């Protein structure tokens, strides 16, 4: 692994793919709907598993779920979902595969109602990033009042696999919440410092 010696959060261990994800994506504010949909799908598959497992299967998920195009995913047939269930390159959980299709339809409905999913999801914080100041990994919560509110709203909008812990992961990934530790180089970078 060829990683520089800048201070990092540490949850990525010695995994190069995890490190690249930490350095380039995690906590960086997202404003593209397709990227939001990708995180929504991947975080739902993470439920009960490690992010490392999901991240290492990301390319296969991208292929199965049509480049994370919500229009195409919403149109996936029973046959296509069954084929996905047989694909050893992804996590073959029938309920999570069906949830991706259900969530694509709910995602499209929110796009129509709010102009974009991005406008909808950022409305929970008035468009601002929440910068936390955690010193240690064990200080980072599994959910917050914000993720509770997002989870409740998304469930009422027809989404599944959007419990509060999944929603918090989704908010962290998409940069609505900056949970990089204060001594991590990304914390200050994202804060603009």
Give keywords.
globular; about 190 residues
Q: Could you explain how this protein is built, in words?
A:
The protein is mainly α and 193 residues long. It is 54% helix and 2% strand. It contains eleven helices and two strands. Strands 1-2 form a two-stranded parallel sheet. α9 (145-156) packs across α10. The longest helix has 21 residues, at 94-114. It is globular.
Give the biggest sheet: 2 strands, parallel
- Please mark out the parts with pLDDT under 50 across 5 or more consecutive residues, or reply none: none
**What is the total tally of β strands?**
2
Order of helices and strands: HHHHHHHHEHHEH
| Quaternary assembly | single chain
Helicity, as a percent range: 40-55%
Order of strands in the sheet with most strands:
1-2
Rg from C-alpha positions?
17 Å
CA distance, first residue to last residue: 28 Å
Number of helices: 11
What portion of the residues fall into strands of 2 or more residues? under 5%
Mean pLDDT score, rounded?
A: 96
Silhouette:
globular
Name the structural class.
Answer: mainly alpha
């Amino acid at each position: 692994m060829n990683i520089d010696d800048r201070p990092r959060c540490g949850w990525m261990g010695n995994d190069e793919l995890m490190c690249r994800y930490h350095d380039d994506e995690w906590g960086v504010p997202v404003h593209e709907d397709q990227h939001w949909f990708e995180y929504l799908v991947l975080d739902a598959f993470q439920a009960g598993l490690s992010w490392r497992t999901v991240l290492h299967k990301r390319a296969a998920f991208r292929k199965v779920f049509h480049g994370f195009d919500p229009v195409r995913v919403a149109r996936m047939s029973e046959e296509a979902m069954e084929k996905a269930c047989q694909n050893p390159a992804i996590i073959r959980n029938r309920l999570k595969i069906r949830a991706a299709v259900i969530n694509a339809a709910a995602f499209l409905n929110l796009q129509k109602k709010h102009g974009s999913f991005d406008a909808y999801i950022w409305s929970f914080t008035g468009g601002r990033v929440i910068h936390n100041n955690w010193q240690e990994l064990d200080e980072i919560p599994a959910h917050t009042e914000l993720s509770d509110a997002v989870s409740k709203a998304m469930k009422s909008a027809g989404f599944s696999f959007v419990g509060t812990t999944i929603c918090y992961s989704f908010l962290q990934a998409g940069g609505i919440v900056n949970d990089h530790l204060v001594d991590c180089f990304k914390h200050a970078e994202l804060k603009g410092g």
